[in-house]
Amino acid sequence: MGSVKHKQRTSVQSAWEWMKSIAVALVIWFVLRALLIQAFRIPSPSMENTLMIGDFLFVNKALYGAEIPLVKKRLPAIREPERFDVIVFESPETSGMNVVKRVVGIPGDTLAMAENRIYVNGRALYEPYANRTDPAKDPEDPRMRAWQSDYLIGGDRSSYRPTLKNWGPIVVPSDSFFVMGDNRDNSYDSRYWGFLGRDRIDGKPLFIYYSFDQEGLLPLPFLTAIRWRRIFSTPE
User: Fold this and answer.
1) Catalytic residue among 101, 165, 190, 204
2) CA torsion, points 48, 114, 99, 83, in degrees to nearest 10?
3) What predicted TM-score, i.e. pTM, was given to this entire model?
4) Known catalytic residue at 101
5) Angstrom distance (rounded) from CA 56 to CA 2
6) 95 tagged catalytic
7) Model confidence over 152-210: pLDDT tens digits?
8) Among residues 3, 11, 46, 73, which one is catalytic?
9) I want to staple 206 with a disulfide (CB 3.0 to 4.6 A). Which of 46, 58, 74, 185 is the partner?
10) Which of these, 93, 108, 165, 101, lies nearest to 133 by C-alpha position?
C-alpha cells in the first residue's frame, strides 16, 4: 500500500515538474517574442526583389527599442532608424497589421521625386535595390495631395498635383520617417498615407529563415519550391 502511494506522489511530482518546465519555457518564449525577436512573413510584392512573397523573417526588436507589452513603454534603443534601413512597423492605417518597407527619409530631410528618382536634400539618392517594373505607370492620386500639401515647400499648394513618380519637395517632420517599397511601381507606402511615426517602428529584419515560391508548379510548393539560396540571407 505504501509503495502505491509513493508511486502516486512520484507521478504527481513528476507531472508538476513538467508543468513548471513548460511554464518557464512559455514565459521565456513570450519575453523573447515581445522584447527581442519576432517572426514575420512577407505577404506582398512591394519589396521585391529584396524580399519576396514567401520569405519568412526573424525581426530584431531590440535594435530600435522594443515596446513593453501592456505598459506601452519602450526599452532604450541600441540606435535610431537610419536611411536605407529595411524596417518592420505597425501600419498607420490598419491596427495590428505589420508592414515592411525601406527608410528613405529621416527627420529634417527635404524629399522630392522626379521621373521615378528620389532626391534627398537636393541630391539624387543612389538606390541599387530599387526595382522599377512599369515605366509608363504614373497615376495621380488625391490621397497624395491630401496630406503632402501641408508639407510642401517652395510651391503653389492650390495647383499641386503629385503623382506616383513626381512629387514634392516636402520636409520630414521630427520623430517621423518616410518609407517606400523597393518595388517602386507596386508599393503602397508613405507616398500615399504619409509619414511614419517613430513610435510605430518595431524592428529590423535579422535574416530569412525560410523561403518558398508559392507559385511553384509542383504540388505542395512549401516543400517542393523552397528557395534554398535565400535561407539565412540578410535583406539589405
Assistant:
1) 101
2) 90
3) 0.84
4) yes
5) 55
6) no
7) 998 778 889 999 999 999 999 999 999 999 999 999 999 999 999 999 999 999 999 99
8) 46
9) 58
10) 165
